[in-house]
TrEMBL record:
<dbReference type="InterPro" id="IPR038670">
    <property type="entry name" value="HslJ-like_sf"/>
</dbReference>
<protein>
    <submittedName>
        <fullName>META domain-containing protein</fullName>
    </submittedName>
</protein>
<dbReference type="Pfam" id="PF03724">
    <property type="entry name" value="META"/>
</dbReference>
<feature type="domain" description="DUF306">
    <location>
        <begin position="28"/>
        <end position="135"/>
    </location>
</feature>
<feature type="domain" description="DUF306">
    <location>
        <begin position="148"/>
        <end position="251"/>
    </location>
</feature>
<dbReference type="InterPro" id="IPR005184">
    <property type="entry name" value="DUF306_Meta_HslJ"/>
</dbReference>
<dbReference type="InterPro" id="IPR053147">
    <property type="entry name" value="Hsp_HslJ-like"/>
</dbReference>
Length: 255
């Protein structure tokens, strides 16, 4: 009897360990960068900035962009299916263009259940209704050639007059952000989509300093908002084009 009791205890321990191990494997699938695909079952519009979500299981934290502001939060509870997100806070930037921020943040605060696999993440509310659907971000963010600091050489195909302050831009593909100077003001924003050829920038925010010459900085910002795809020339110039394949901006790498 004693021997059988020992065997039974060992079986319980093995079962417990296997259960814990499978749960850990399932949870690790959450550790990724996710791009929102649907809200309440409806596909998002490509004309608006798409919210992003990054989950860090080591810190039990989440972060991302709402389509307007950056946000952070914490994971207070996490099981094989249950999840509780708390303390979701956003920056307070005012965004002129339409976005999903209010709806997205409201639904993130309702998340109670999740389903995850190698390519998708689904959040449900307490009534088990699907409210948010994400797909794994597939952009090769790290070690991309565009990840660098660049100085403008052409705007709308025209060489820059060296009498003006030359605009610059820095692309941080790890954090999916960009920032720079338009020749007068500092500007910043998020990268919504990125591949080796295509790029979509989110809303552009900036400081509001007035300079003696404002026409050129405004032309630069307008051109920046129109970029759709890019390529590198043989002489290492980074050239951006609009959807009609017209050149809008060109940059050279800052050494």
């Amino acid at each position: 009897m004693k021997k059988n009791g020992i065997v039974f205890s060992i079986l319980i321990l093995i079962t417990s360990c296997n259960s814990k191990e499978s749960k850990t494997v399932m949870n690790t699938l959450l550790q990724s960068d996710w791009q929102l695909e649907k809200i309440n079952g409806e596909l998002l519009s490509d004309s608006m900035q798409i919210p992003m979500l990054q989950i860090d299981l080591a810190k039990m934290q989440l972060s991302g962009n709402t389509g307007c502001n950056s946000y952070t939060g914490s994971i207070s509870e996490l099981g094989e299916k249950d999840i509780v997100l708390e303390n979701i806070a956003t920056t307070l930037k005012m965004c002129v263009e339409g976005n999903y921020e209010d709806q997205y943040v409201n639904l993130m605060n309702q998340v109670k259940i999740y389903e995850v696999n190698d390519s998708s993440l689904t959040f449900k509310n307490s009534a088990e209704k699907v409210i948010l659907e994400f797909k794994k971000y597939s952009g090769t963010k790290k070690n991309m050639r565009i990840h660098d600091i660049w100085s403008a050489v052409r705007v709308e195909g025209n060489p820059i007059n060296r009498m003006v302050t030359v605009p610059r831009i820095e692309f941080n593909t790890t954090d999916m952000k960009f920032y720079g100077n338009d020749g007068c003001n500092e500007y910043f924003g998020t990268i919504s989509k990125l591949s080796e050829e295509k790029i979509t920038l989110g809303n552009v925010g900036s400081t509001r300093k007035m300079c003696p010459e404002m026409e050129f900085p405004q032309r630069y910002i307008n051109a920046l908002k129109n970029i759709d795809n890019y390529k590198f020339t043989d002489d290492n110039i980074l050239v951006f084009f609009n959807k009609d394949e017209e050149e809008v901006l060109a940059f050279m790498k800052v050494d």
